[in-house]
Amino acid sequence: MSVLRFLLALGCLRLGSAVDLQPQLASVTFATNNPTLTTVALEKPLCVFDSSATLVGTYEVYLYVLAELASSKNDSVQDHTGNPLSATFQQTEGGRTSPYKAASFDLQPCSDLPSLDAIGDVFRASEILNSYLIKVGSNRACLLDPNFQGLCNPPLSAATGYRFKYALVNMSTGLVEDQTLWSDPIRTNRLAPYSAIDTWPGRRSGGMIVITSILGSLPFFLLLGFAGAIILSFVDMGSSDGETTHDSQIMQEAVPKSLETSYTSVNRGPALDRAEVYSSKLQN
Ligand SMILES: *[C@@H]1O[C@H](CO)[C@@H](O)[C@H](O)[C@H]1NC(C)=O
Ligand SMILES: *[C@@H]1O[C@H](CO)[C@@H](O)[C@H](O)[C@H]1NC(C)=O
């Protein structure tokens, strides 16, 4: 828990005036697989808008999403009267033309943050995480449901850069009171190419592959050696009858002395010797 406290303290230190802050990707401590192919988990803007003074009244935070390569250069999230935009995912082609409103939630007062001590409690963990994190792209059903009312937060596109912005809306006036900067582009994951998908449980290193293939071919060599041994034993059985042995002894003796001496400078193997023996025998 002390790690979480430390991260939170860091998060709060990073905060100053809301205007020059950016939404941040959720820490790996909270969200291990982030971003995914279709979702991005962000830290909620805790103590961002009310860090200096407590806000009186009711406020909501709106989360806007804009594709990195949006066609419009106008990334404003409010109209000229200060009313927050309510463009949807469908209307903006998933943030490709202009920002869309992906989520809204009550402003959690800086003085009243849920304790992280209870995060180990499985029954409260998700509730606590919800007060710290917001997941963009978490609602798959709303696009397919024609009767869906409310804010649609459908899955993002894979391998696409997105920017995010929080706006503080005063619910008494309905106006944008404050807003963060746009985040740096955050890319969703891309599908791993087919070749990179390793079906073997536990990836193998190059060294391991070499060892495995050596071990794999070992039975082949053993079989080869075994077959060789069998063949040799048959050959030995054949040569054990007196005739051939005697013959080869004769051949050895038949090497002419003159031939032997004239070839002394040549490094001869036994096979060569035998060839000479045969040739000399043929001459005889
Ligand atoms: C940007 O878009 C908003 C909302 O559509 C609009 O009110 C505003 O006038 C636009 N700003 C510019 C500079 O076009
Ligand atoms: C929000 O609106 C109320 C009512 O108009 C106003 O009293 C309050 O000051 C506004 N909040 C901010 C932060 O301006």
Report on the architecture of this protein.
Strands 2, 3, 5, 6 and 7 form a five-stranded antiparallel beta sheet that branches. Strand 5 (161-170) and strand 6 (175-179) form a beta hairpin. Mean pLDDT is 76; it is low at 1-17 and 240-282. This protein is α+β, with helices and mostly antiparallel strands and 284 residues long. It has helices at 2-13, 122-132, 206-239, 242-253, 257-262, 270-283, and strands at residues 40-43, 59-67, 100-106, 133-136, 161-170, 175-179, 186-187. It contains six helices and seven strands, in the order H-E-E-E-H-E-E-E-E-H-H-H-H. Helices cover 31% and strands 14% of the residues. The longest helix is centred in the last third of the chain and has 34 residues, at 206-239. The chain starts with a helix and ends with a helix. The structure holds 2-acetamido-2-deoxy-beta-D-glucopyranose (2 copies). One 2-acetamido-2-deoxy-beta-D-glucopyranose binds next to loops.
Summarize this entry quickly.
InterPro entries: Uroplakin-3, Uroplakin-3a. The protein has 284 residues and is α+β, with helices and mostly antiparallel strands.
Low-confidence stretches: 1-17, 240-282
Beta fraction: 5-15%
Tell me, briefly, the overall form.
Answer: elongated
Rounded to the nearest angstrom, the radius of gyration is: 40 Å
Structural class, judged by helices and strands?
alpha+beta
> H/E order of the elements?
HEEEHEEEEHHHH
- Write down the oligomeric state: single chain
| Main beta sheet | 5 strands, antiparallel
How many helices does DSSP assign? 6
InterPro entries: Uroplakin-3, Uroplakin-3a
Keywords: Membrane, Signal, Transmembrane, Transmembrane helix
GO cellular component, one term: plasma membrane
Protein name: Uroplakin-3a
